[in-house]
Design goal:
- This protein has helices at residues 132-143, 150-173, 196-204, 267-272, 314-320, 353-361, 366-373, and strands spanning 36-43, 45-51, 56-60, 65-69, 73-79, 82-85, 88-89, 94-99, 104-106, 109-111, 114-120, 123-130, 180-181, 208-212, 215-216, 221-222, 260-266, 284-292, 298-305, 309-313, 328-334, 337-343, 351-352, 378-381.
- The chain has 383 residues and is α+β, with helices and mostly antiparallel strands.
- Strand 14 and strand 15 (215-216) form a beta hairpin.
- The two termini are 30 Å apart.
- It binds zinc ion (ZN).
- Residues 9, 224-225, 250, 252-253, 352, 355 line the site of zinc ion.
- The site of zinc ion has 8 residues, from loops.
Length: 383
């Protein structure tokens, strides 16, 4: 549920200022989007197995290659960038595997669209090419909840579509062989599904995305913002993405269970999570927050022992302990136990999913919600 920027959520119930941001639908600003390219695999040496119920066509537009392969399974072998399909060397660096009918399968998952094997030097990339709307629909199956109101899923669809379009622009500028990864490094993508509720929300917002300065925005989101005000977060480049510098607090998620979390460990168990560094201070005795930023996010943590103390970054604590759900937390030691108490679930930037769900319950429309979380943006639509 987390977007990252590099390849990369109590507000006042009064909306007088929110509605000042006008939502403008502009038709015909851009041609229909071409295929989205999602990275499914990357190999120097190894094997990919791809299935298609009706066999394949192997194509390469620039060379006119178009070969029918009746086999239901293809073995793509990579050895230092050289590609063999079912044992035969493929003399092109850009081969597309097209299913004759139905969906492709790879690693137990079904995919819409085609697969392309792209080689760059000694590395081969397995890339799924599919339509923008199919991609957004698939992402929502992983990143949303079908049981939530359609209006919320419309919000998520527009955010997801904006994000992938921004990534596509960036990838094309950097000449990267794919637009995004299939993990939560970008957006979690697990292939095709037949969930009608999700598909309906995607259809109802077909082609709509958020733009800033005319370009699709990097519409980051997390599960729950914990009431953190993004504009106060340190070490985030808001110059690149001013629409993520929201100055109003979201208080909507406060009603949800996910809003706060707590976890405790005996001192010796907590210590084990930071070995070997903690060994140097002679056993853990105390922990405390050493530094927070203006938003209340942890920057530094101090671990004290019998013979010294060490400092850890907030990132280090977050990544080392799966029970730590966000960067907004306090620490305390009592009766030999370390207790961490926090707010939020995720990175606190962009849209707050649980907050958006509560807004819909209060009667907010998808447009108002998007304007709240992504200020100074406009809604646009492909022709
Ligand atoms: Zn929130």
């Amino acid at each position: 549920m987390r977007f990252t920027f590099d390849c990369y959520n109590s507000t006042s119930r009064a909306f007088s200022s929110v509605v000042l941001f006008s939502l403008i639908f502009i038709s015909g600003v851009q041609a229909s989007p071409c295929d989205i390219r999602v990275l499914l695999g990357e190999l120097h040496t190894g094997v990919w197995r791809v299935l298609a119920p009706g066999g394949f066509r192997l194509t390469r537009e620039s060379s006119g290659m178009n070969v029918r392969v009746p086999n239901q399974e293809l073995t793509v072998t990579i050895r230092r960038g050289r590609v063999r399909v079912n044992g035969r060397i493929v003399r092109h660096d850009n081969v597309t595997l097209v299913p004759q009918r139905g969906r492709l399968e790879f690693n137990g998952k079904a995919y819409d669209g085609d697969l392309r094997v792209i080689t760059r030097g000694d590395t081969a990339y397995l890339v799924n090419l599919l339509g923008l709307e199919e991609y957004v629909s698939s992402v929502l199956r992983s990143e949303s909840w079908p049981g939530w109101p359609t209006e919320v899923n419309k919000v998520f669809a527009i955010a997801s579509r904006s994000y992938v379009l921004a990534m596509r622009q960036r990838a094309e500028k950097n000449k990267r062989p794919y637009h995004l990864k299939n993990t939560n490094k970008h957006q979690t993508y697990t292939g095709a599904h037949d969930c009608d509720v999700i598909k309906k929300a995607v259809d109802m917002t077909r082609g709509i995305y958020l733009a800033h300065d005319g370009k699709p925005i990097v519409a980051m989101f997390d599960s729950c913002c914990g009431g953190v005000i993004p504009a106060n977060i340190a070490d985030f480049d808001f110059k690149r993405a001013p629409y993520l510098a929201r100055k109003k607090a979201c208080t909507f998620c406060k009603r949800c269970k996910i809003y706060s979390w707590q976890a405790s460990w005996p001192l010796d168990i907590f210590e084990k999570m930071f070995r070997p560094r903690v060994v140097t201070i002679g056993g853990l005795r105390d922990v405390r927050v050493a530094q927070k930023d203006d938003a209340g996010l942890i920057k530094k943590v101090m671990l004290k022992g019998r013979s010294g103390q060490i400092e850890l970054s907030g990132d280090r604590v977050y990544s080392a302990i799966k029970e730590v759900k966000s960067f907004c937390f306090d620490m305390a030691v009592k009766s030999g136990k370390v207790t961490l108490s926090g707010r939020g679930f995720g990175h606190h930037i962009g849209l707050c999913q649980w907050g958006a769900r509560e807004m819909v319950r209060d009667g907010w429309t998808y447009k108002r919600i998007l304007q709240f979380y992504y200020p100074s943006t406009q809604l646009k639509r492909f022709a």
